[in-house]
Amino acid sequence: MQQIDAVLNQAVESGDIPGVVAMVATDSGPVYAGAFGTRKLDAGPAMTTDTVFRIASMTKAVASVAAMQLYEQGKFGLDQPLGEIMPELATLEVLEGFDTDGQPQLRPAKRPVTARQLLTHTAGFGYEIWNPGLGQYQKATGKPGIGSGKKAALSMPLVCDPGERWEYGINTDWVGQLVEAISGQTLGDYLTQHVFEPLGMVDTGFVRSAEQSERTVCVHQRGEDGTLAPLDIELIPPDTDFHSGGGGLNSTAKDYLAFVQMLLTGGSHNDAQILKPETVALMSENHIGDLAAGDMTTAIPPLSNDVKFSPGVVHKHGLGFLINTSALPGARSAGSLSWAGIFNSYYWIDPTKRVAGVIMMQILPFFDVKAIPVYERFEHATYQALGLLEA
Predict the structure, then answer these.
(1) Overall average pLDDT of the 312-321 stretch
(2) In the chain, what are the domain boundaries?
(3) 168 labelled catalytic
(4) Please, what is the Cα angle at 76 between 273 and 124, to 5 degrees?
(5) If you count DSSP H runs as helices and E runs as strands, how many of each does the chain have, helices first?
């Protein structure tokens, strides 16, 4: 695996990124683990394979798996109006604009929200990071944003009617609320019992222990001049009043690799059956029809650049992750699953070539100009090292 080592080491030595941890598995088990650079620029300590990261929206796949466990048990239907289970979703309104005084103009949604829509980001919920109307709404009403850690941040209007378009947003936070409503447990307790402990994910959770905090990497901000600076603030409040199914988990590359291995091998790993193979297959299908997914235009540049995964490739969305409809040259196959976290952590699962990878960095803004090429080179080096490139 010298090709992968070379890619990651060069990225750190060049100063493109402060540090990185990356791992790869096939359906036979882990085949690569590497850690390079430091947890904090010019301060250390060195990155290690057990370094803890804020995995942000990589939480979404985990919460989606939890929901699909309950779906397997017949606890809800994918197209059932979820207002029947969560009354808060029965009276949703759509933000149409603002009047001359800057006050929001709202109207009732035309149709109810379903689990299929939440799991595919077609329910109409958005994020203020990529939807300026929601930022304006928050300023006008005093409602907190999702980064506040306050449950009131979920009481946002829709930005379109359910089912009309793919709009990345707080949908999976509502999936987490669905898990809580059905199970009677907090999302954290449910995941610990039904996902983390069975998979041996010992360093994954919504709250870090003191020992895990000692192993946690610092977030770095890239300035307009391209330089990186450590952020000595905790960007996700430690005193959140709900568990964010959309972005609240801390984890390690090793733990998350176990999770993606489970999906790669049809729902089982570490002698634990997390999902049925047919459920994993269902999650891996296109559930948004003719809609396209994946592209986002930033409304808050310090937090995210414009996002366009694999230009020229049409993306769809399954029940929890992005799906590329054609192969990427020298990399993943058509039908592979992927997503990311805002601090530039990424994963992919290739069911055709039977390989999955996890790469974790901790940099803002999302889709960082230096981190994305590292991710791409890491993936290509993986396929090269495993002899999976097309002849």
Answers:
(1) 97
(2) 2-71+183-385, 77-180
(3) yes
(4) 110
(5) 11, 16
Distance from C-alpha of 321 to C-alpha of 349, rounded to nearest angstrom: 10
Q: What is the rounded CA–CA span in Å between residue 52 and residue 39?
A: 10
Q: Which of 32, 40, 60, 346 is catalytic?
A: 60
- CA-to-CA dists, residue 357 to 102, 148, 312, 315, 337, angstroms: 46, 31, 22, 19, 11
Give the tens place of pLDDT for each residue, 145-193: 999 999 999 999 999 999 999 999 999 999 999 999 999 999 999 999 9
Token pair for 339: 């997503």
* CA distances (Å), origin 321, targets 121, 203, 286, 293: 10, 23, 10, 10
Per DSSP, the residues of 140-169 read HH-PPPGGG--GGGG-PPBSS-TTSS---S
Tokens 């495993």 belong to 386
Tell me which of 127, 137, 168, 347 is the catalytic residue: 168
pLDDT tens for 278-305 read: 999 999 999 999 999 999 999 999 999 9
Distance, in Å, from the CA atom of 314 to the CA atom of 269, rounded to the nearest integer, reads 31
Of 40, 57, 304, 353, which one is the catalytic site residue? 57
CA distance 240 to 153: 11
Respond yes or no: is residue 64 known to be catalytic.
Answer: no
In this structure, are strands 220-222 and 363-364 parallel, antiparallel, or unpaired?
A: parallel
Do 211 and 46 form a contact (C-beta atoms < 8 A)?
no
* Domain covering 2-71+183-385 assigned CATH 3.40.710.10 in the classification: yes
Distance CA 316, CA 333 (A): 14
CA nearest to 285, candidates 17, 73, 68: 68
- Over residues 119-132, the pLDDT tens digits come to 999 999 999 999 99
139 annotated active-site: no
Nearest alpha-carbon partner for 141 in 129, 130, 128, 124: 128
The pairing of strands 355-360 and 363-364 is unpaired
